[in-house]
Specification:
Layout: H1 7-22, H2 38-46, H3 49-60, H4 67-74, H5 77-94, H6 97-117
Length: 119
């Protein structure tokens, strides 16, 4: 290679820099922090924006934080299941009484069917 970056690489880096700026990290803000590596910044962009912004603020204040570690923590099967159950409960609570009742009937029928057809 001749040391020049491809247009695609430059566009990807520009897009990442813009996304980081939207989260509150301007050019050079993360350089003296625990989020200065490309791997940490890549993980930062994969986090929900609120969590990423929280990590950026903590890093700017001198705390040792890791976006990679946080990303692993929120993508474990248990964490995913917890978020899905919370979303289901929230939707159930926002639903009307008729929809709740029908859902409960269908859920009970499903559970009953599974228990009677098990060996």
């Amino acid at each position: 290679m001749d040391g020049r970056k491809s247009k695609r690489t430059i566009n990807r880096q520009f897009k990442a820099a813009r996304a980081l700026a939207e989260l509150g990290a301007g050019p050079g803000d993360l350089v003296p922090t625990s989020l200065s590596s490309a791997a940490e910044q890549s993980a930062l962009l994969k986090l929900p924006s609120r969590e990423a912004a929280t990590l950026i603020l903590a890093a700017k204040r001198g705390k040792q934080v890791s976006a990679k570690r946080r990303l692993r923590a929120i993508t474990t099967p248990e964490a995913v299941t917890h978020r899905e159950v919370a979303a289901l409960i929230q939707l159930f609570n926002r639903s009307g009484i008729a929809a709740r009742t029908k859902f409960q009937e269908l859920l009970l029928a499903s559970v009953t069917q599974r228990t009677t057809s098990s060996p």
